[in-house]
Amino acid sequence: xxxxxxxxxxxxxxxxxxxxxxxxxxxxxxxxxxxxxxxxxxxxxxxxxxxxxxxxxxxxxxxxxxxxxxxxxxxxxxxxxxxxxxxxxxxxxxxxxxxxxxxxxxxxxxxxxxxxxxxxxxxxxxxxxxxxxxxxxxxx
Amino acid sequence: xxxxxxxxxxxxxxxxxxxxxxxxxxxxxxxxxxxxxxxxxxxxxxxxxxxxxxxxxxxxxxxxxxxxxxxxxxxxxxxxxxxxxxxxxxxxxxxxxxxxxxxxxxxxxxxxxxxxxxxxxxxxxxxxxxxxxxxxxxxx
Lengths: 140, 140
Hints:
2 copies of one chain form a homodimer. With about 140 residues, chain A is an alpha+beta fold.
């Protein structure tokens, strides 16, 4: 199966960095940090639609997403969080947890990942991951 | 509170038409049907972030969204469903349940609601709502 969430760690690593395993998914820090604190929450199995999950998986997935959003909210103080599953082409279920800021890009509009990325140093990524991990109480 | 989901039925009705009350939310057919079958699932209380909900509310909300997506999938046979909560400006929690088609608008990209809308006759809206209601087994 040609899915980089399942089979291509190198490609995945070029886009995002692992933060933590959660109940039924894994949280990553998105390398493009134009939305400061943006994370991706990837469902652990290869499923493509929310209605393919069992009720337990649905609950655990939404709790994982809510926990990541709450943590991003505490660490980076955005004005709103956007949550989205797209995946027309790369269909493995993953939520974009995207902090939005009143004075930041695309405020009041859907976020976009097709403009020039904001790339940080590895040290800065590590710092953000540490800050998030510190407040992300996995499994609570 | 200036929220049209809470306080302005006329404004709400200009954008979407009610389909059914669900467990913890209400499903609407979006009037702009450029994404054939697009629905909005609105949380019944005024909350603005997923992490403000109790675990029961989180489960019921995601189940409502999954049920609407499954039904839209059965009725309209899209190639993928997109699911998104934005709400920078109108923050009352609501999911866009947006069917995407390989030969339709924004395939492979985030959906957009800022281009020319596709408006149907009232009869055609009623037909789509009937089709969705018929397969939407509320509370299962």
